[in-house]
Amino acid sequence: MSQQQQQTSPPTARVAQRQVQLSAGDVAGAPVIEVRDLRTHFPIRRGVFSRTVGQVKAVDGVSFDVREGKTLGLVGESGCGKTTVGRTILRLIPHTSGEVRYRGRDLLALGGRELRGLRRHMQIIFQDPVSSLNPRMTVGNIIGEPIQVHGIARGRARDEMVAGLLERVGLDPSYAARYPHEFSGGQRQRIGIARALALNPDFIVCDEPVSALDVSIQSQILNLLDDLQRERRIAYLFIAHNLAVVEHFSDEVAVMYLGRIVERAGADDLYANPKHPYTMSLLSAIPEADPRPKRVRIVLPGEVPSPSNPPTGCPFHPRCPLARQVAAEAGAADTTTIESAGDPVRVLRKCVEEIPPLEQKQATPGHVAACWVTK
Amino acid sequence: MATPLLEVKNLNVAFDTERGQIRPVRDVSFSVFPGQTVAIVGESGCGKSVTALSILRLIPQPPGRVLGGEIVLDGRNLLALSEREMRGVRGKDIAMIFQEPMTSLNPVFTIGDQIAEAVTLHQRISNRQAYAVAEQALRDVGIADPGRRLHEYPHQMSGGMRQRVMIAMALSCQPRLLIADEPTTALDVTIQAQILELLRKLQRERGMSILLITHDLGVVAENADVVNVMYASRVVEAATVEDLFDRPQHPYTEGLFRSVPKLGQKIDRLETIPGTVPNPARFPTGCKFHPRCPRTRQLAAAAPAEQTMEAAAAGERFRVMRVCVEQEPDLREVRGRHWASCHFAENYPQAKPTAPQLDHHRPEVAAPAAAPDLIATAAKEEYKP
Questions:
Q1: Most buried residue, A257, A264, B152, B171, by CB count within 10 Å?
Q2: C-alpha span between A242 and B70 (Å, rounded)
Q3: Are A72 and A66 in contact, with CB atoms under 8 Å apart?
Q4: Which site among B148, B263, B277, B293 would you substitute to test the A interface, given the most A Cβ atoms closer than 10 Å to its Cβ?
Q5: What is the pTM of this model?
Q6: What pLDDT does residue B373 have?
Q7: B185/B165 Cα distance (integer angstroms)
Q8: ipTM computed for the complex
Q9: pLDDT (average), residues A69-85
């Protein structure tokens, strides 16, 4: 493993000095969640004694804010670490280093009781509405359990709260007596949302909340989440792979690739003026619902590399179309030959050797990207 | 007019369940012409996959049963063939690829074994030759180092790579029709773009037809020549891809288009289709879409009372047109070469119910010269060594 990959950073010192703006676009409002240089590494164990032989850097230095009543969209392909980010923030997965603050309090340092107290403010909605609901519990108990556990209400009062929640998510209150298998996917997702709302949270991680649903049901659920945000000023971390959905739903968007954020900007800016070649490719790869294409498709070569053995330098360089195009015009001293999807290609030497920092581009303030080529 | 390669005529499929018979495919008719990509688009449970499986006669019987209809491939009715004759058709004339390549590949055999097996089933060639065919097939689908990959097992490959292997296997016997059932649904967008481009390239080179089963309107818009929209076991609209996207006739198709967020068109609120896809065990009477249909509600609001009636769905009561509840519309040519089944599609009353025949090939798709090429622009404007 190279020097660069082994380098871990003392997070706090760096975070304190950091003056880069951590939100962009129309996202005024107090931050509910502040994430600074978060890292989540998983050990790779081999052999009889389970020796640690390496690390999967699922999340490798990620920073962002999620503001009151606003949505931060986190996009990327499978394996980029977006789900791990969401779960690490909620402490469902232990972190390796970095900071997560909820309204100024360091979440990652809290112990059992304090953590449980704060947990009611932070909830999660899962992708799969089938496996995330206990099949042996009635809908009333699924939604009512957190209310009881946190000592908010019991008995009749609890049941009334459950009825109110069911009604709010568009389900009949009589459904409280039924079991999850009696419902369709969209209805189950509504139950999952009612459960997340039960404790009146102000931050919800939505982990691919609509990707398992039919097209005509997706828009219903997205509109419901939107209404709830307006009513209750909930901050969402909206994790998804569908850029069109994220654009529609988010105030700000962060694009992840191999455990890092490669671009972050206000939703409108990101789509109008992408500054990272990976974002450009993702945007161009979405099939348009129009038989006459309006965009030039960029088909990336190869696949996302394994996070256990990421490329040197810019993690995107083996697939980057920009590094190649620019190399064609650059002097021989500035370029080098690499192998990509089995073919030798010339790319910029700098992209192979140094990791580009996430820096402000010539765009709206707060629009940052990690690329050596774009300005 | 050319003769279709495949003609499905009035296909009806039933499943016998404990709670009675359900009908996942009702009166489905469509044609696939040589070199054409025909899409069947619809949501889960609409019957699109059962239609595809019945073409290959892969519906488990019992509980499944083909009640009637014809599936004609090159003049031969597949439903009348013996099981032995049918085995000669599967893989050779018609091949199929599935959504989840992991479950369709055998985990205990190498990739080479599996492709070679498919080849030797249909061609009298030696094992060594079959492996050579397999190696070429892997090369054709863009797999680097095919000689080494032949000896690998499915678990050693990524999802995109496995889908390429599935395509290589399906195409190893040069089928004339490829049925692709949600071929890219399980893949990431950048890999999806690779696979779709590969399918288009192979189709151009070999002139094969593709029956594309999907729920993704974007995939349809970019790849299909002709589209059949299915809802509640029936084709509710059939048209060329251009006509369908320019002038959808069925309110379900309209609703689908409007409920999908589109890149670069920020709107405050998505339109929705109320309610959910009906369960085939409890289909509503009349038009199966009427409980969710915005068109019938709108018309009923302005129509004389005797033409309307009250309906209830999802705990809501509203007025709809009486005919929508009492009579199921059939598929009619409501505009030139554009079929829809809606009582209130333009010209529906005058049109005759017919089976769609659409020998249409879209013009070569290329983005207009004015379309922004982000990478080229960035390379030109941004980079200063």
A1: A264
A2: 39
A3: yes
A4: B263
A5: 0.85
A6: 78
A7: 16
A8: 0.82
A9: 91
